[in-house]
Amino acid sequence: MPQTVWFLTLPGVMVLDLTGPAESLALAGDHFTLRYIGPQPSVVCSTGMTIGNIEPLPDTLPPESLLVVPGVYDSRICYDTPQAEQARKWLQTQQAVIQAQNLMLICVCSGALLAAQAGLLNGVQCTTHHDVSDRMKAAAPQARVKDNRVFVEDGNIWTSAGITAGIDLALHLINRLCGAQRALAVAREMVVWFRRSGDDPQLSPWLRYRNHLHPAIHRAQDAMIAHPEHAWTLAELAARAHVSSRHLARLFRQHLGISVREYHEQLRVGIARQRQQQGEAAEKAALAAGFSSARQLRRARQRWDDQLTR
């Protein structure tokens, strides 16, 4: 069943805070159902456009829902209104299900300030737009506000910085809920790059080195991702990419900063780690990932661990 995503839509909503995550989730296919709720049936947004057919605020949200709180064009004005006060009181009624982790809260830009004013971010690591950060700290002294972050995840509460950072957050949310391949497909459809914050877990090898737009490299990467255990030769990959072997090697160095072999090895290490996390022995996981032995896997893993900690 698709997960329902509820967008809290207030007067003055920042259009990209709303449509950026909404479009990202919509492109994920049938994984999500999008609904828009708020204190009034239509609002004028940041660009002067009217958004209509907004549903009333429900008494409760179904378990496993996602609640998105987009920001507004001027939180000093837009959060000092009867509609914002109604939204804050409604958010407080959702606190129990959020704390029980039966509801995922996602705040974009100054939407985090509204959630903080409602008391939902006390004790929570979070972030917001840099212009709002000081006011959020004042409004919620118990919130653990992180500056200079693209987004921050703390349990089932996700917060992001300004405007386009909501797209970054949505892509990582798709990665978490639908898998890396789906998130990558959405990012490529939207022609955006994957980014990560300091608090975000290390990107999986399926997403790392995909922040480029070169179609030949993408074709080679897609082939290796589909069958990372295969002993790919440079000639085979070049044929898949429709370029010469020499040119493919040059492209990897130019756009990724690593060799084709190094990229392939990272994928194999990722496969082996997944299988070990699922309880497989090191030797079996290594062979399934295309390594000749657990010893070869350990050496490869050590190489990349050393590189990532430099």
Structural features, described:
- With 310 residues, the chain is α/β, with parallel strands linked by helices.
- It folds into 2 domains: 3-190, Class I glutamine amidotransferase (GATase) domain (Rossmann fold, 3-Layer(aba) Sandwich), CATH 3.40.50.880; 215-308, Homeodomain-like (Arc Repressor Mutant, subunit A), CATH 1.10.10.60.
- It has helices at residues 15-26, 75-78, 82-93, 95-99, 111-117, 133-139, 165-178, 180-190, 215-226, 234-241, 245-255, 260-277, 282-288, 294-308; strands spanning 3-8, 32-37, 43-44, 50-51, 65-69, 103-108, 125-126, 144-145, 151-154, 157-160.
Layout of helices and strands:
Elements lengths: L2 E6 L6 H12 L5 E6 L5 E2 L5 E2 L13 E5 L5 H4 L3 H12 L1 H5 L3 E6 L2 H7 L7 E2 L6 H7 L4 E2 L5 E4 L2 E4 L4 H14 L1 H11 L24 H12 L7 H8 L3 H11 L4 H18 L4 H7 L5 H15 L2
Parallel strand pairs: 1-2, 1-5, 5-6, 6-10, 7-8
Antiparallel strand pairs: 3-4, 9-10
Primary descriptors:
2 domains; 46% helix; 14 helices; single chain; 10 strands; 13% strand; two-stranded antiparallel ribbon; Rossmann fold; six-stranded mixed sheet; 310 residues; alpha/beta; Arc Repressor Mutant, subunit A
- Cα-atom radius of gyration: 22 Å
Strand arrangement, major sheet: 2-1-5-6-10-9
Report the top-level CATH class of the largest domain: Alpha Beta
Q: How many separate domains make up the residues?
A: 2
Order of helices and strands: EHEEEEHHHEHEHEEEHHHHHHHH
Q: Structural class of the helix and strand makeup? A: alpha/beta
Mean pLDDT: 90
Which CATH architecture of the largest domain is right?
3-Layer(aba) Sandwich
DSSP summary, beta strand count: 10
CATH superfamily of the largest domain: Class I glutamine amidotransferase (GATase) domain
The number of helical runs is 14
Give the percentage of residues in beta strands.
Answer: 5-15%
Share in helix: 40-55%
Distance between the termini: 43 Å
Largest sheet data:
6 strands, mixed
